[in-house]
Amino acid sequence: MKFLPLVWKNIWRKKFRTTFTLLSLFIAFLLFGILMTIRAAFSFGIDLAGLDRLVLIHKVSLIMPLPVSYQARIQQTPGVELASHQTWFGGVYQDPSNFFANIAVEPETFLKIYPEFKLPPEQIAAWQADRQGAIVGRDLATRFGWKTGDRVPLTATIWRAKQGDTWEFNIAGIYDGADGVDRTQFFFRYDYLDENRAGGQGQVGWYVVKIADPARSAELSRSFDDMFANSPAETKTTTEKGFVEGFAKQIGDIGAIMIAISSTVLFMFGLVAASTMAQSVRERTSELAVLKTLGFSGGAILTLVLAESLFIAFAGGVLGLGLAWLFVQTGDPTGGMLPIFLLPARDLVIGVALMALIGFLAGVVPAIAAMRLRITDALRRN
Amino acid sequence: MRWISQTLAVLALNIRTIPARLSSSGVAIIGIAGVVVVFVSVLSIAAGFSAAMEGSGSPDRALVMRSGADSEMVSGLGGPEVEIIKQAPGIRRAGETPLVSAELLVVVDLPKQSSPDAPANVPVRGIEPTSIRVRDEFSLVEGRMFEFGTNEVVVGRGAHGQFVSMNVGDTIVSGQNRWPVVGVFAAGGGVAETEIWIDARTLQGAYRRGNSFQSVLARLDSPESYDAFRDWLTANPQVNLSIRRENEYYAMQSQALTRLIRTIGFAIAGLMGIGAVFGAILTMYTAVATRAREIATLRALGFNTGSVLVSILAESLVLGAIGGVIGGAAAYLAFNGYQTSTMNFQTFSQVAFAFRVTPGLLAMGLIYALTMGLIGGLFPAIRAARLPIPVALREL
Prior knowledge:
The complex is a heterodimer of chains A (382) and B (396).
Chain A: H1 4-11, H2 15-42, E1 53-58, E2 66-67, H3 70-76, E3 80-88, E4 102-105, H4 107-113, H5 121-129, E5 133-137, H6 138-144, E6 151-155, E7 166-175, E8 186-189, H7 190-196, E9 203-204, E10 206-211, H8 217-227, E11 235-239, H9 240-251, H10 254-282, H11 285-293, H12 298-329, H13 345-372, H14 375-381
Parallel strand pairs in A: 4-8, 5-7
Antiparallel strand pairs in A: 1-10, 1-11, 2-9, 3-4, 3-10, 5-8, 6-7
Helix pairs in contact in A: 1-12, 2-10, 2-12, 10-13, 11-14, 12-13
Chain B: H1 2-16, H2 22-54, E1 61-66, E2 77-78, H3 79-86, E3 93-94, E4 97-98, E5 100-111, E6 119-127, H4 131-134, E7 138-143, E8 153-156, H5 157-162, E9 171-174, E10 177-187, E11 196-199, H6 200-206, E12 212-213, E13 215-219, H7 226-235, E14 241-245, H8 246-290, H9 292-300, H10 305-335, E15 339-344, E16 349-354, H11 359-386, H12 389-394
Parallel strand pairs in B: 6-11, 8-10
Antiparallel strand pairs in B: 1-13, 1-14, 2-12, 3-4, 5-6, 5-13, 7-10, 8-11, 9-10, 15-16
Helix pairs in contact in B: 1-10, 2-8, 2-10, 2-11, 8-11, 10-11
């Protein structure tokens, strides 16, 4: 501890170099934070998808409808806690560029299956009382300045209303949720959709089934698919996690490639910073020899050098990662294109580990060299 | 004149000594090259995707969908509506036949070659016999065209490269449907190359669509005939349609993803650029510091401050240029023509495309590299020019 002032002096002996090394590391970790956020966004919240929820879609494709009559049959299957259906509406609010997911659901079963959507009880009651009611995510409400009680028109793209192209909704509630929950969605009542659409009555998009025991998901998936085999609407069942994973894979490798290139370059930046730090230790070999002459042990010198390089790595890194975290808290800058916008805690831990690694790599080689140094050689070198 | 020759002399000296400062110059070059790789390769994704989408449409074709539909996928047109559309003015004719194709577009789940366990939404288009004459960029590259009235299909070049069992002789299985593949086609590099084409009547049967379609593609006499075509259909009270030029329709669909990728590319490359500039500043400061005495000597000999300043800036620009060229070349070699596919969210279906490292992108990358070099050299150059000669001579 008493040598801290010495470490501090050593760090700032070349103010210019240290400042820019710190700045480089700062930028590198800021970028690391942002990249990991983008990576999480491209995975569509896969970490939060439930293993105890199965998704049942038409075997040919998700866009093909299923009959609403399947619900009772699924619900009766032993091992099923609750079955609910959803239907993609694809409505447009004012302009097609204002994209957000709008889905018709059954309020009661929907809220039971998705406990992560938090809603005050009076808003749930309001939703259940109003056929045209809809609940919207906190982020979506903020984006368009909606409050409960507002009337929101959506223009139909798939389901035309009997009276024309425009459907009217009342905002009954605004749901919230923990980090990573998609708060950009718009849910409204299926009974309103089914009664008011010009065609396609009795059809739903897909089913979400909550099962009692996640270990039985494969077995139950098979039994659903067998149940509807050879019917006009055959099904394909996967866990919700598998479903989200499949969806993320449809985006393909472009996200992965962007992340991979950027991470490689970032890693290179880290190495460059480390080599600059290592160089500043090498330049001081003779001073380290003087310290040894004064009676510093090899271990003490190793500690001094490592303390210095670790300090620089952590100072730059923590500031950078911290700023990235603050930036992510301000929300999605693309206005709704990235519904999942957060910096996962796991990546924060990885970031800190990387700082330690860079600091260690930068310090350890010259420090060991210094430790093994024969005093006479080192002093003669200059 | 003397000023220029002085500058050149100092510059030559600087550049000849770069190898002596290799490790420090290397830091700057690697940093700048890395940024250029990221910048060029990320933007090449956007360039490839938008090229595939924009190459899909032609201004002398009009796409007709149901009013309110923003993509073919959600549109629906009845047989009688299609007959009305075929009577509109401005449509090119081959003899008596109007060059109009009423089509269906659905997606089916089929496995991707890169991830066989996860199905991808592959678009299937039901076409009429006129369709091939409406799209003159269509050509077969393998096998033969399917027979109308059968369940045979032809697959696009992109689909052939991205999805499983898309070779001539394979059979595509989707639900209870079995579709033998008899040919592979090209369509000018556009979106259609990711599609499977089948007789519209077969698809109507397989999907219980009756006599209904989703869109009508019309070949116009000329791009100028579009207004007459649209106005006639808009004024017709029997139908309620949305009409667009085909190229505008596809350009609009590519906007969202292209913008997202560009935003990410610019943001990442911008931030990395700041990091690389720091690296360059560090390098040039070191370069100036190690030669403070030489620089001071030159100035004492009568070389003017301007030429010292310019020569250091020029050295930094040279480092930037080397980094830019290396980075551009690396991005080009690694990614130009890389085949992949992604989801087009507007139609909820896959689009195969190739990354495109265009000359424009390479030029932008080089300009960016030079800018980084210039900014990196500026402060060290000013410092070198300002350093009092006696102090500098005494240094070391």
